[in-house]
Structure formats: structure tokens, C-alpha cells
Specification:
There is one protein chain. This protein is α+β, with helices and mostly antiparallel strands. The protein folds into two domains: about 50 residues, Uridine Diphospho-n-acetylenolpyruvylglucosamine Reductase, domain 2 (2-Layer Sandwich), CATH 3.30.43.10; about 210 residues, 2-Layer Sandwich (Uridine Diphospho-n-acetylenolpyruvylglucosamine Reductase, domain 3). It is built from eleven helices and twelve strands. The strands form three sheets. Strands 4-5-8-6-7 form a five-stranded antiparallel β-sheet. The longest helix has 19 residues. The N and C termini lie far apart (about 50 Å).
Length: about 260
Amino acid sequence: MYNFDYTRPSSLDEALKALSSGDEVKLMAGGQTLIPTLKQRLAQPTKVIDLSGIAELKGIKVEGNSVVIGAMTPHAAVADSAEVKAKIPALASLAHGIGDPQVRNRGTLGGSISNNDPAADYPAALMALGATVHTNKRQLAAEDFFDGMFSTALAEDEIVTKVAFPIPEKAAYAKFAQPASRYALVGVFVARTGGGVRVAVTGAGEGGVFRVGDFESALSANFTAAALEGVAVSADGLNGDIHGSPEYRAHLIGVMAKRAVQAAG
């Protein structure tokens, strides 16, 4: 690990001031990815800004037809939230399946989506539910926020403050997890919303999370697992590694999508 300055601001304004200092800055939310990266000397920031002391970035509330979750809210809080369980139980279930208790109590919603790991769970929820990402500067639809593997539309002087999840009519998430890390080899989030059916896949795409239009069309006509019989996803552009080939992941997408639809009811 290289030397760096560390600061833990108590407000968003303080964090933004530190971010604009001109230094080579890294923001830290839960640190689940950044700390190992620093230990392996794969990053060399001159300053690390720890966002964990900013109370205004934490919390969960229902606003109109949306569940709004602060960026620094830990996964465990989402999993245990009475509001999330009542309004979007699929989201609470997703959060409960992230990593282990240590990861769920340190990792945060904002940190996860800002890192945009291609096997992370939250991106699928944002895409399927049509969530809106709020930053200190603007609001971004999920489709506009995620921008490829480990990449987002965030500017260097931008911090995610909260995410608004529209409440769906039905939704569920099904994940085939890598046993050691519990990252998704394939995770499929299915949601029936007022605007139609949305199906988002994580863990499988070379460019990160993506939607499956053929599944959405089939489920819009008939929201049952049977509607997906004979509808396949091409292996082209899917990940292949020691855990599974592109063809295996393509098959898993269909299996997980059917399970998600069954779970949604």
C-alpha cells in the first residue's frame, strides 16, 4: 500500500470540497473493493475521502411511489428494512444475498453501483426497476448511469447521494452465486411495473448489466415462467472464465429468469 492522506468529512459539502482539492483522490464508501486494491498497490491515490461519516447520505424512506435509499446505506440495512420488505421485497432479498454478514454491514448501495462490478447484484435491481440515481449535481436513469464494466457516467467531481426505486407490481431476483465470493455468475431481476415488464441480467455480460428484450416481450404477453420456454439468449458477448463458459451463462440466464418469474408470483 502506498502512502496517502486520509480524511473523513461529516457533511456532503465537506466531501465535495476535499474532492475538488486537485489531488489524486479516491472516494471510499464501504471500502470492500478499494481497500484490497490499495493493499495490492493497484491504485496510488494521494488522498482517500471516507464517506462513512456523512449522516445525510444514509437512510431509507418511502416517498410517493418510490423507495428512496441513501447512498451510504449498508446492504444489511436494506435487507432488514421494514419499508423495503413491505414495498419491494425482492430488493430486500437481493441485499440479503450479498456476500457475508461482514460485507453486508460494511458495503453500501452507493459504493456498489459506483464501482459497477460486472457481477454485482444491485445494478440488476436498478435496471429492472427503472431506478433513478441522484448525485450532488443531477439525476440519472439507471440505463444512463451504468457505462460498461467498472465504469459509470459519474464525473470526477460527482458523488452519488441516493437512489429512488419505483415500487413495482411484482418483482423477484434469482441468482446463481459463485460459492466462495457469492458474486453472481448469473443474476436475473424481473419486474412488472406500470410501464411494462423489465428483465435485467448481471454477472454474465462482458460490459456489465444488461436487459433482455426478448424475455420482456414474452413476459409482457404472459407473465409466467412458461412464457420463456423456447426463448434463448445468445452466448455472444457473454463472459467466459474458469467458473463457466459463455454458453453455460446463456443457459443460466434462462433458468434464473424462470425462477425469478416463479418467485414473483
